[in-house]
Known about the structure:
Elements: E1 3-7, E2 21-24, H1 25-28, H2 33-44, E3 52-57, H3 63-76, E4 81-89, H4 92-101, E5 106-110, E6 122-128, H5 137-147, E7 152-156, E8 167-171, E9 174-179, H6 183-192, H7 195-202, E10 209-212, H8 218-229, E11 237-238, H9 259-265, E12 273-276, E13 285-288, E14 291-293, H10 295-304, E15 319-322, H11 328-336, E16 340-343, H12 351-355, E17 361-364, E18 368-371, H13 379-393, H14 397-408, E19 410-421, H15 423-436, E20 444-445, E21 448-455, E22 458-459, E23 466-467, E24 472-476, E25 481-486, E26 494-504, H16 514-517, H17 519-529, H18 531-535, E27 542-543
Parallel strand pairs: 3-4, 3-5, 4-9, 10-11, 10-12, 15-16, 15-17
Antiparallel strand pairs: 1-7, 2-6, 5-6, 8-9, 12-13, 13-14, 17-18, 19-26, 19-27, 20-21, 21-24, 22-23, 24-25, 25-26
Helix pairs in contact: 2-3, 2-5, 7-13, 10-11
The structure holds alpha-D-glucose-1-phosphate-6-vanadate and cobalt (II) ion.
Amino acid sequence: MNIVTVPTRPIAGQRPGTSGLRKQVAVFQQPGYLENFVQSLFDALEGFSGATLVLGGDGRFYNERAIQTVLRMAAANGFGRVIVGRDGILSTPAASALIRAHGAFGGIILSASHNPGGPHGDFGIKFNTANGGPAPEAITEAVYRRTQNIERYLTVEADDVNLALQGRARVQAMLVEVIDPVAEYAALLERLFDFDAIARLLGSGRFRMKFDAMHAVTGPYARAILVQRLGAPPGSVMNGVPLPDFGGGHPDPNPTYAAELVAAMFADDAPDFGAASDGDGDRNMIVGRRFIVTPSDSVAVIAANAHLVPGYAGRLKGVARSMPTSAALDTVAKALGIPCYETPTGWKFFGNLLDAGRITICGEESAGTGSDHVREKDGLWAVLFWLNILAVRGESVEAVLRDHWARYGRHFYSRHDHEGIDSEVAESLMAHLSASLSELPGRRIGDAVVASADHFAYTDPVDGSVSSGQGIRIGFAGGARIVFRLSGTGTEGATLRVYLERYEPDAALHGIETQAALAGLIAAADALAGIRQRTGRTQPTVIT
Ligand code: VG1
Ligand code: CO
């Protein structure tokens, strides 16, 4: 093989965040930017000579160019085979499934997930290990260290691989298999859910659904599974054609950015069930008729109803949620008598628990839900889980939620995002809050008394690794809490996330509107952190 060694120099700022390295497209287009990161990744890894790599992305602008670059570099660095999705497409959960099914060394997923795409949008790259899950911090930090002293990258001279053509190709000695991005993933989901029951529901004429693919990666997956396999009418999938700029939208499934779906679900002739996924297909939003399901509630409902779903009946070993996710899941775990783990934000922290067989289902408040079937959160998996529950119970989404609250109590929950604030302002807000923590316990804020205030740190129960500085938690007497974090996925300025939660056992009070139910906490968050005064913002950019 003719390996070309290209001299290069370190480029600052290549530290992966919550989920891979995300930057504006223009940054990734700088000569050597992608190459430096990919070579640093390969330099930080060992034992892949002759091994298999899974490769694909969410179809955003620059996806195909980046894939061709990675293919040449994988060949030069000694991979034996790359499995790549046709047209360079692989959703994040589908990539995870392929890595596991093919015994791959790992996978490279090209995505900035929910961040906007297009020439003026964002691009991203992340590495998943042989278990199919996002690389743990030990690896991402080693990659980052390598980016700081890299001097060369390796590539080969070779023509582009025709990604439109399913089948085998070669990049010098390395085999490239271009595969259907949907087939194996769809077959995996079919083994978990009662497809016959769901097909009966969708074909009954008494149940209508809308799935919003937001012009992102799930379009082809949703058409193949919901329409072709389960018989939903073709109009059930909206925005189903992946576009390099996601149609100019923000492929983040929440009431603000999936406004089109929400409008349809609140219309007079609203369907019974609505759902949406994000850029790379790992998130989900669940909506009933005129009823939005909070992701924290969704994972709790999924766990509480898992006995109704063939792939999960009688086999919940434990559950886990990220720290800012509401404790609705904990309440279900307690009732089921199974452990509930609390991890930092980001799916990589669930990997060890899943691998060790300690948990079966896990979720995050940011619309991520998943299980041990892969090692990523999985948008369509959550949609099928809900459809399976509805098919068995024969009730509306709202009825399922009201029954859940009546049984377990309601965790009023909301996240307020302040996007695009000045980084220094955000850092100083967090620093001031941090400096005040030791004086807070015992203090009265509005009509609540602070019971605890700390930085969340996590010790992985499986490998003992410690992750500190994972968000500031303020707990109040009575159990309400506020969490403050800065986002680790944005590319411009900073995003302050404020997470608000209050438990209400009294069913007579479950109908209160969420923001009204949390008004006291919202005011307390501002009093504690000085959000308005420091950022000049009077309203959050996004409320979920
Ligand atoms: C956000 C979410 C987090 C999620 C991460 C990646 O991170 O809060 O829960 O795991 O995005 O999801 P942050 O650091 O911005 O809060 V995805 O679908 O963007 O890969
Ligand atoms: Co995503």
